[in-house]
């Protein structure tokens, strides 16, 4: 009862004076660091302490029509990985697949043409960046690829076949080797095990079961009135048209979902609640495995897992938006900050705002 009352009082405090102070601070950060639109939140497993969206959807058009709205979508970038991992957890609990299922148990017909370095890779290896699949984190890697024909999921399947037939990363002493492409390989396994495309699985889990809103790709690709991503062109922050020749189709499961802040908060709350021991859509033990099953990076989450400290985090950016999420399991609090730019200045501002939010929230705990 005391804990519930404490959360209520905390939420009330942030909705009044402290919330106004933080809004002023966040907007000053936004302006100083040339961030067109900024959204941020602090939350517990069952309440929202802070939630705000400020600024403008385009840097070069700032008026009532482009002013930030609460339901604006932000590109999650690599924070999409936690959602693909979440779907994997759903399929594992449904007994469609296991974490230790080997890739070639599902695609035996591809083994004869594959690189032997990949013979033993599992779903867990792929989702935790331990399969030694090349990273595909730069444009140069994509430019060297052959052209893949067909629908998005057909192109992705051909991309996966190409990946496992070509060179692996050399073995090294790193705990993990980050790979966007590894998530495409993992998604192929989830598709084969479920009989559904990754896109259909997203619709089934996020939309139909969890009632969360999302889009694939940049927000302004399906609605010109949604936030535009920004990058630097000719030393100037530039909004990117929806027609810009830039797509993440081949690595969509690694980094191409957009969500409104409100809906992403609900997803993070499910994770925090599960980490606090309360089963919901997934079992509590599944959430613990997603976040802490492996050292340093488990499934879609970087982690600190020590006797006196348990936290998980992830940043996501395809160069045009930025999303950062931090979950403090011990204190039952999580922080989200999203922006429609990803410049060095943007990141400086985001982490100054994060520091301020942590001080503001945790000083009251």
UniProtKB/TrEMBL annotation:
<dbReference type="InterPro" id="IPR001466">
    <property type="entry name" value="Beta-lactam-related"/>
</dbReference>
<dbReference type="GO" id="GO:0016020">
    <property type="term" value="C:membrane"/>
</dbReference>
<dbReference type="GO" id="GO:0016787">
    <property type="term" value="F:hydrolase activity"/>
</dbReference>
<dbReference type="Pfam" id="PF00144">
    <property type="entry name" value="Beta-lactamase"/>
</dbReference>
<keyword id="KW-0378">Hydrolase</keyword>
<feature type="domain" description="Beta-lactamase-related">
    <location>
        <begin position="30"/>
        <end position="344"/>
    </location>
</feature>
<dbReference type="InterPro" id="IPR012338">
    <property type="entry name" value="Beta-lactam/transpept-like"/>
</dbReference>
<dbReference type="InterPro" id="IPR050491">
    <property type="entry name" value="AmpC-like"/>
</dbReference>
<keyword id="KW-0472">Membrane</keyword>
<protein>
    <submittedName>
        <fullName>Serine hydrolase</fullName>
    </submittedName>
</protein>
């Amino acid at each position: 009862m005391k804990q519930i009352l404490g959360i209520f009082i905390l939420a009330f405090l942030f909705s009044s004076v402290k919330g106004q102070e933080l809004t002023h601070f966040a907007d000053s950060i936004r302006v100083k660091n040339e961030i067109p639109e900024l959204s941020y939140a602090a939350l517990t497993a069952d309440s929202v302490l802070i939630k705000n969206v400020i600024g403008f959807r385009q840097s070069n058009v700032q008026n009532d029509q482009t002013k930030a709205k609460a339901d604006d979508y932000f590109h999650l970038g690599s924070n999409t990985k936690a959602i693909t991992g979440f779907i994997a957890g759903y399929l594992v609990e449904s007994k469609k697949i296991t974490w230790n299922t080997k890739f070639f148990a599902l695609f035996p017909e591809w083994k004869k043409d594959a690189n032997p370095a990949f013979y033993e890779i599992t779903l867990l290896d792929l989702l935790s960046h331990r399969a030694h699949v090349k990273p595909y984190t730069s444009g140069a890697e994509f430019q060297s690829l052959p052209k893949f024909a067909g629908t998005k999921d057909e192109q992705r399947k051909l991309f996966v076949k190409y990946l496992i037939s070509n060179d692996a990363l050399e073995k090294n002493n790193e705990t993990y080797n980050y790979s966007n492409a590894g998530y495409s390989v993992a998604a192929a396994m989830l598709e084969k095990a479920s009989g559904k495309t990754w896109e259909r699985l997203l619709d089934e889990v996020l939309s139909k079961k969890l009632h969360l809103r999302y889009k694939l790709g940049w927000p302004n690709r399906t609605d010109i009135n949604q936030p535009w991503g920004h990058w630097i062109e000719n030393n100037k922050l530039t909004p990117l048209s929806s027609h810009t020749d830039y797509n993440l189709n081949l690595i969509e499961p690694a980094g191409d979902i957009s969500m409104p802040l409100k809906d992403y908060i609900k997803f993070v709350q499910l994770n925090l609640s599960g980490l606090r021991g309360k089963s919901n859509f997934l079992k509590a033990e599944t959430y613990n495995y997603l976040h802490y099953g492996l050292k340093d990076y488990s499934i879609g989450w970087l982690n600190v897992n020590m006797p006196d400290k348990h936290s998980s985090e992830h940043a996501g950016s395809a160069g045009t938006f930025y999303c950062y999420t931090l979950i403090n399991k011990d204190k039952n609090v999580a922080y989200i900050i999203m922006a429609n730019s990803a410049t060095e200045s943007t990141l400086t501002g985001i982490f100054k705002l994060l520091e301020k939010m942590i001080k503001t929230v945790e000083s009251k705990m």
